[in-house]
Amino acid sequence: MLKEMRITEFLEKTASKDPVPGGGSISALAGAAAASLVEMVANLTRGRKGFEDVSEEMESISRKAARYRERLTDAIDADSAAYGKVMDAFRMPRDTDAEKGARSRAIQEALRLAAEVPLAVAKDALGILPLAETVLKKGNPNALTDGLVGVMMAKTATLGALNNVRINLASINDVSYVARVSADVREMEVLVVQMEKDILVGTQS
Amino acid sequence: MLKEMRITEFLEKTASKDPVPGGGSISALAGAAAASLVEMVANLTRGRKGFEDVSEEMESISRKAARYRERLTDAIDADSAAYGKVMDAFRMPRDTDAEKGARSRAIQEALRLAAEVPLAVAKDALGILPLAETVLKKGNPNALTDGLVGVMMAKTATLGALNNVRINLASINDVSYVARVSADVREMEVLVVQMEKDILVGTQS
């Protein structure tokens, strides 16, 4: 599993001419890193003197961020696996009409999964931002920079994953599915940029 | 070493209440991931049919990106080690005037190193962007999304690292050093945002 690789090894594999892991898995990794940083700030706050009032809230954020971290770490593998299924489908035989039909259906099904995985990554990465906002507002100020890097990583993870959704949508034939998901993608793209801006401005003041 | 940890283990350690690894090491990781993606696009281009004209350029980019990847991966550890030295200096005895002086000098020296490490990360991450621009313009279009995620990760790595420079500058007493590095930080912040914008706009058209 990619997530159990050493960092050096995982990055070497990314850099190689194999198409996976690529931008999709890296977006998931960025999201998992963002979750880790938010979790860290919450953990550096809860139970500390001077932060008694927010200790319970920080414990709850720490637990939520840990779930995002685990889910996004799993997505490093899920994204590459989904791409592998698309490649497998493209390699199916296409000598007869029946084979052509089966291959085409398998490709479409695989492409949909390859869109759904980064869509889930984008949603999770977006979900980290409100947690990040709270730890930046109420958490240990010594860890402010860690929280800020978390915000930027969550935004990049979201946009990177949405880019991967788009590229798969481009080959999907189901027009109503493509229209629906494209609208979601656009909405999330606007939302994440605005959320990051609001959090960064709110933190400076 | 952090860079030899499994991804899951490294992210768990980031999430823990230990102050390192934190935003500095994650910024270095983001830069290393960006370099990996650019290297991958170059490797997916060189030697391919239809890309004969750019094969040599792609080989050169692949080699340069690999060096950035290795240096930025090393910086995951260097950043956390630099923070450790600051903490060590703060723990020095301060009972006599001589001890107070030695401690203060050690703290200042450690803070400067803790600023220099992320400054080098920011410079390397920024250096990835022109390579990314070239692979996006001339490279294998099948890997376009990977290149775009690389651009976003390089920008985030730069801004994240510069945030870590700033936080250390805030405690450094050498006014002329702080003024000089602050000016560099501001210049790089403006530059990276502009470069990312130019590349993304240039890629869409």
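Chain B touches chain A through 55 residues (CB under 8 Å).
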